[in-house]
Amino acid sequence: MSRRRHSDGDDGGQSHKRRRTSEPVEIEDRLESLICRVGEKSTSSLESNLEGLAGVLEADLPNYKNKILRILCAVARLLPEKLTVYTTLVGLLNARNYNFGGEFVEAMIRQLKETLKANLYTEALYLVRFLCDLVNCHVIAAPSMVAMFENFVSVTQEEDVPQVRSDWFVYAVLSSLPWVGKELYEKKDAEMDRLLNQIDGYLKRRLKTHVPMLQVWTAEKPHPQEEYLDCLFAQIQKLKKDRWQERHILRPYIAFDSVLCEALQHNLPPFTPPAHMPDCQYPMPRVIFRMFDYTDAPEGPVMPGSHSVERFVIEDNLHNIIKSHWKERKTCAAQLLSYPGKNKIPLNYHIVEVIFGELFQLPCPPHIDVMYTTLLIELCKLQPGSLPQVLAQATEMMYVRLDTMNTTCIDRLLNWFSHHLSNFQFRWSWDDWVDCLALDADKPKPKFVKEVLEKCMRLSYHQRIVDIVPPTFSALIPADPIFFYKYQDEANSALPGYAVAIAVGNAIKNRASNEEILTVLKDVPNPNQEDDDDEGEGFNPLKIEVFLQTLLHLAAKSFSHSFSALAKFHEILKALTDCDEGKLHILRVVYEVWRNHPQMVSVLVDKLIRTQIVDCAAVANWLFSPNMAHEFTRFYVWEILHSTIRKMNKHVQKIQKELEEAKDKLERQQHKKQKDSGDEEDMEKNSEDEDGQLEEQIERLQEKVESAQSEQKNLFLVIFQRFIMMLTEHLVRCETGSVDFSTPWYKNCIERLQQIFLMHHVTIHQYMGTLENLLFTAELDHHILAVYQQFCALQL
C-alpha cells in the first residue's frame, strides 16, 4: 500500500509539474480549436459566437499575439468557405485593438508575397479575397485596395510574359468583386470604371487558341462552354448592372456595423506583383462546365442563370468545401448538403454539376477520380429521396450528349458510372438506352455502353453482366474472358511447333530447369529462315509463341498464377526477346491468347514492363501496329499506353532524385571538410576516398539519367510519329475519295492525341524543341498541327 501511495504521490508530482510546463501549449491548442470551429453548427447564433471569441482573443493578445496572428493567417489561406466569418472576427479585433489590426494586415501581405513566390496561386487567391473583405469590415481603407487592384491589372501591360500570368492577376481582381465591388464603387467609382475597362480591353485581345482542347463538349448547345475569364467578366458586368446586389454571400459583419464603422482603418502597404521568373508555374486556363439550367430543375427554387454572379459564388463555395474536406468523404458530403442558404437554391443540382465539373476538368481533375465516385455514393446515402434522381438525370443528359463529348471525359464518365453501378447491384434502366443498338458499333453511344459493361465485368464477373442486361443488348455484352490456346486441340497437331508445345508443357509440369526447357525449344523450326540457312539462330517468332502460349495456358487460372509464371521463367523470356522484333512478338502473343480478356492483357503488359522483358517503346509500337488497328479505339488500349508513359516518367524521376541526393551528399561532405580542415591527415584521406566514390556514383547516375531521358524522348517521338502517320493517311484517303474526314474514328484519334498532350504536359514541355523540329513542322496538315498549337497555348 505504502509503495502504491508513494508512486501515486510521485505521479501526482510529475503530472503537476508537466501541467505547469504544458499550460501555454494547452491554451494555444484551445485558441486554435476555438478559431477553427467558429461558424460551425452551434446552439448560439453566429454573431454571439463571434463576439464571444473576439473577447477571448482580445484577453489573450498580450501573451499569445503571435500564435493568434499565425492561426488567423492560416485560416484565411486554408478555410476559404468561412472567409466572411473570419474577416468579421478580424474586424472586431481591430475595433478593440488597432495595433493588432495593423500587424495582421502586414502579416497577410507578407504571406501573400510568400505564396506567390512559392507558386501557391490558389491560396494566394484566397488571401486577396480575404484582404478585400476586410474593406467591408472597416479594417482596410478602400482607396488602398483599389491601388492594389490597379497594380494587379498593370501586369497585363508587361511584355514577354506568359498570358497565364496576366490571366491570374485579372482573375484575382474579378473573382474578389462579388465580395467588395459595392464598397469600392461607392468610394472610388471612376477608378473602378477605368479598371474594368482595362480588363475588358485585355480580355478582347487575349488569345484563346487553347479553348477547344479544354472543352468537355464541342457543341455550344444546350449550354455554351465558356472560357473561365470571359464567363466571370460577364457575371461581374451583370452584377455591376444590378448595382452590385447579390444574395448568396454570408455577411456576418452587417450585424456589427455600428461597432465596425467606428474603427480606424489601415492602408495597405504598396504591393508590387513579384516579377515573372522562368520557374513560375501559373494555373492553367479552364473552361466553365455547364450541365444544368433553370429548366432542368422544375420544382423548388430556381437555378441562377449562368451569367449571374450567384452562380459563381455558389460554385466557388462548393469547390472550396470539396477542396477542404476531400479526404473525408462523409464529412465532405455532410458539409456540401448543409451549405448555407440551401433553401434558396436547387442545391442537389448545383452539387452534382460541380462534382462532374471537377471530374471532367482538363487536363486532370483536382483530386483522384475515385474520390468523386465515393463522394457521390455518400451523397446518395444521405439524400436517398432526391439526390439519386438528380444523378440519374445528369447521367441521362451526358449519355444523350456523348456524340460531342471529349473522349478523355468519356473515359472518366465510364469509369465513374461502372464503379457507381457496382455499388448499387448494377441496377440501371438499360431499356432507356435501347436507341444505341440501332447505331453503328463505332458510334459513341454503343461504344460507351459496351465499355461500361466491360468495366462492370471487371468489378464482378461475366455471367452477372449477362444476367443484369436485357437480352436485346447481347451484341454489346463483353465476350466470355476465355484463354485461346492453339496447341490444346489434337485436331491442330499439324501446326508447326505442336509437338514441342506438348513437350514444353510437360517439362514445365515436371519442374524442368531453364536450360532443359531451352533445349526442348531448340527443336522449334524458324519460319524466318530457309532450310539451308545455317547462319545462327536469329529471331524465331514460333519459339516465343510455343513457349509463351504454353506457359500462360498453364497459368491461366488467375492473375497471381500468371505473375508467378512470368517471374519464374523470366530468364527464358529475356533470352527469347533480346531484339526489338522479339519484344513486339511477345506482346502480340499475350494479346492473341487473352484477346477476350482486356484486363488480363493490361496487367500482363504492365508486368512485362516492370520485369524489363519488354520496354516502353515496344509497347507503343505494338499498340499502333496494324495488328491492333481493330482495337485502336478501345478503352483498355489507352489505359495501357498511359500506364506505360507514367512508368517511363516515374523511372526518369527516380533516377533524377537519386542524382540530386548524391550531389547534395557530396556538397555536404565538402562543406564539412572545409569546416574541419584543421583535423588530422588520415581523416582527410578518408574523406577524399569518400568524395571520390561519390563523384563516381554521380557520374554513373548522370549517365543513367541521360540514357533514361533519351528513352523517354524516344517514347514520345514514337507515339507522336505514329499518330501523325495514322491521321495523315486517314485525311489523304478521305480527300482522295471525296468523303467527310470527320468520322467517329477521326474524332477519337485526334482527341486521344490531345489527351497525350494534356495528361503528360509537364514532361512533354521538356521536349518541345525536338517535337517542333522533327514532327510538328509547318508542312503538317493543319488539323493535326492545330492540336499542337492548342497545347502550346496552354502555357503562353
From TrEMBL:
One of its GO terms (molecular function) is RNA cap binding. Residues 28-240 form the MIF4G domain. GO terms for biological process: 7-methylguanosine mRNA capping; mRNA export from nucleus; nuclear-transcribed mRNA catabolic process, nonsense-mediated decay; regulation of mRNA processing; regulation of translation; regulatory ncRNA-mediated gene silencing; RNA splicing. Belongs to the NCBP1 family. Keywords: Coiled coil, Cytoplasm, mRNA capping, mRNA processing, mRNA splicing, mRNA transport, Nonsense-mediated mRNA decay, Nucleus, RNA-mediated gene silencing, Translation regulation, Transport. Residues 678-695 have a biased composition (Acidic residues). This is MIF4G domain-containing protein. One of its GO terms (cellular component) is cytoplasm. InterPro entries: ARM-type_fold, CBP80, MIF4G-like_typ-1, MIF4G-like_typ-2, MIF4G-like_typ-3. Residues 1-26, 664-695 are annotated as: Disordered. It comes from Coregonus suidteri. It holds the Pfam family MIF4G. It is found in: Cytoplasm; Nucleus.
